[in-house]
Write a structure and sequence with these properties.
This protein is mainly β. Helix content is 0%, strand content 48%. The protein has no helices and 11 strands. The strands form 2 sheets. Strands 2, 4, 5, 6, 9, 10 and 11 form a 7-stranded mixed beta sheet that branches.
Length: 123
Amino acid sequence: QVQLVESGGGLVQAGDSLRLSCAASGRTFSSYVMGWFRQAPGKEREFVAAINRYGITNYADSVKGRFTVSRDNAKNTVYLQMNSLKPEDTAVYYCAAARYGVWSSRRVDYDYWGQGTQVTVSS
């Protein structure tokens, strides 16, 4: 069983930056695909970014060029650096871990989920 705990959310203004962190338990963290998803009020949870064991990253078109996902396997932590934030980035952000695969943007492929952290961007 893997436990994921997100932190770093908050209230910021448009154009500001935030860095989210996700700390994972377990000894096999380095082998997991780690993903970030978000869910805005009244909307479905959507893919934001992912990084696999090889450090290969993928992003949703809506965040490409603004967000950067990274991982520190020594600390069992994955990060999401969010720059040039927009009001439409407002959502609860979730960290997720997939035991198998190279990478995925599908929620169903992720086995473990954190509790989420709120990001609110004011205009």
